[in-house]
Amino acid sequence: MTGMETGHAGLAADFEDFCERWEWGVRALVQNASTLAANLGIAAGTMWEEDQYIHGAFKVAVNAGLGNPHASEDDVEKKAWGDVLSWDMYKPDYSAESFEKSNKDIKQTWSDTKDTVTSTGRIGSLKDLLDQAGGGKG
Fold first, then answer.
1. Nearest Cα to 82, choosing from 66, 103, 96?
2. How many CB atoms lie within 10 A of CB 89?
3. Cα–Cα distance between 81 and 86 in angstroms, integer?
4. Strand, helix or coil at 27?
5. Contact of 8 with 2, CB cutoff 8 Å
6. I need a labelling partner for 138 at 20 to 30 A (CA). Which of 1, 12, 104, 115 fits?
7. Tens-of-pLDDT digits for all 138 residues of the chain?
8. How far apart are CA 34 and CA 20, in angstroms?
9. Is the Cα dihedral 41, 42, 47, 53 positive or negative?
10. How far, rounded to the nearest angstrom, does the alpha carbon of residue 17 sit from its chain's CA centroid?
11. Per 3-state DSSP, what percentage of the chain is helix, strand, and coil (rounded to 5)?
C-alpha cells in the first residue's frame, strides 16, 4: 500500500514491514508443521513396524507351544491367528501319499545312519562320542 492509500507514509512503511514479518512467520510455522508431520509419520511407521514384530513374535511363541513344529517363523508370521491356533494339524493324515513320504523319510534316515557307521567304523557309545570330541578322559 502506498502512503496515499494508508493516509501517511510512515504507516505505509510500518504496514509493509508487518506484512513481510507476517510472511516469514507464516513460512516458519508451515516449515515447523511440515517437520513435525514428517517426524510423526516416521514415528508412526516405526511404531507400526514394532507392533508387527511383536505380533509376529507372539505368533511364533504360540506356534512353538501349540502349532506345527515344522513351520518356519516366516510362514507362521504370515498366518492369521485362526490358522496358528487351528486344531487341524492334530488330525492325522492317513493318505497313501503320507505313508509313502514317511517310508521314504525312514529309509533316508537308516541310509544316513549306515553311512555314519561305515565312515566312523563304529556305532559308538556316549563315552566314545565324548572321546572323539575330546571331552572324555580316554
1. 66
2. 15
3. 8
4. helix
5. no
6. 115
7. 777 777 878 888 888 888 899 999 999 998 888 888 887 777 777 788 888 899 889 888 888 887 777 788 888 888 888 887 776 666 777 889 989 999 999 999 888 888 877 777 666 555 665 666 665 454
8. 21
9. positive
10. 55
11. 80, 0, 20
**Does the pTM of the predicted model rise above 0.70?**
no
Residue at 8: amino acid letter:
H
Q: Residue 56 burial by CB count (10 A; 0-12/13-18/19+): exposed, middle or buried?
A: middle
Task: Name the one residue in this structure whose C-alpha cell is 507464516.
Answer: 26
Q: Show the cell assigned to 18.
A: 508487518
